[in-house]
Design goal:
217 residues, 8 helices, 7 strands, alpha/beta, binds adenosine monophosphate, two-stranded antiparallel sheet, 5-stranded parallel beta sheet, Rossmann fold
C-alpha cells in the first residue's frame, strides 16, 4: 500500500492549514494540527493554559514535553494507524527526534513523506495580514486570495472571523525568525530517510493541491 504518513512543513502563512485540510480529505487520513490542538486546549482557563496562550501570542514555541504528550496520544488513536497528515509538528530538532522514536516504534519511520510548501518571507507578511480564521471550527480564509462567501463570516459554520493575535505583523516576524532558526533544520533531519516533496506555495489553493496530489502519486 502507498505510504500515507505525511509531515507537512513550511513557514507560517505558507497555506499549510488550507492544504492540510484538502489533502487529508482527498486521501481520507486524519489532519493533525498541533496549532489547532493547542488553540482548543487554551480555551480552558487553567494556569497551564494561560501560560501556553502567552507563549503562542509571543510567536514562540510551546514546550517540547507538552507537545510530546499531545502527539504521542494522538498518534496512538485508532484513526492514525493507516496514515495521517502532521501539520505543525515537528517544529525543531528535538521534536524530530521524538517523532522518529514514536514512528520507529510503529515501524513506519521509513515510510514518512515530507511535503514542504515554500513561500518567501515578504509574501508571507503580506498574506498573514489578510488571513482571517474561524475561532469555532478553525477554517482559514484570505481576504484577497480565498475570501469568505459572506462578509467576515465562516463559510462552514457562520461564526465571525478573526485576525489571530499571532497573525499580527510583529508576531509574524517573530514566528518567521523561529521558523528559520528552529524549524528549517528539520528539513535536513528528514532528508536522509524520508521521501521529499517540495511545492511552490504561490497560486490558488486548488492549483497547489493539484500539484501536491500529482507529486504524491
Ligand atoms: P500554527 O497554527 O501551527 O502556526 O501554531 C500556532 C502556535 O502554536 C505556534 O506559533 C506555537 O506557539 C504553537 N505551536 C504549534 N505547534 C507547535 C509545536 N510543534 N511546538 C511548539 N509550539 C507549537
Amino acid at each position: 500500500m502507498r505510504s500515507r504518513f505525511i509531515v507537512l512543513l513550511g513557514p507560517p502563512g505558507a497555506g499549510k492549514g488550507t492544504q492540510a485540510k484538502m489533502i487529508s480529505e482527498k486521501l481520507k487520513i486524519p489532519h493533525i494540527s498541533t496549532g489547532d490542538i493547542l488553540r482548543e486546549s487554551v480555551k480552558k482557563e487553567t494556569p497551564l493554559s494561560r501560560e501556553v496562550k502567552q507563549v503562542m501570542e509571543r510567536g514562540e514555541l510551546v514546550s517540547d514535553l507538552l507537545l510530546e504528550k499531545i502527539i504521542r496520544e494522538r498518534l496512538n488513536e485508532e484513526d492514525c494507524q493507516e496514515g495521517f497528515l502532521l501539520d505543525g509538528y515537528p517544529r525543531n530538532i528535538s521534536q524530530s527526534e521524538t517523532l522518529k522514536e514514536i514512528l520507529s516504534e510503529k515501524n513506519i519511520f521509513k515510510d514518512v513523506i515530507v511535503l514542504e510548501i515554500s513561500v518567501s518571507d515578504d509574501e508571507i507578511v503580506k498574506r498573514l495580514k489578510n488571513r482571517r480564521s474561524c475561532p469555532e471550527c478553525g477554517m482559514v480564509f484570505n481576504l484577497i486570495t480565498n475570501p469568505p462567501k459572506n462578509d467576515n463570516k465562516c463559510d462552514s459554520c457562520g461564526t465571525d472571523l478573526i485576525l489571530r493575535d499571532d497573525d499580527k505583523e510583529n508576531t509574524v516576524r517573530q514566528r518567521l525568525l523561529v521558523y528559520h532558526q528552529k524549524t528549517e533544520p528539520v528539513l535536513d533531519f528528514f532528508s536522509k530517510s524520508a521521501k521529499f516533496l517540495k511545492i511552490e506555495g504561490t497560486g490558488a489553493p486548488e492549483e497547489i493541491l493539484e500539484k501536491v496530489l500529482e507529486k504524491l502519486n
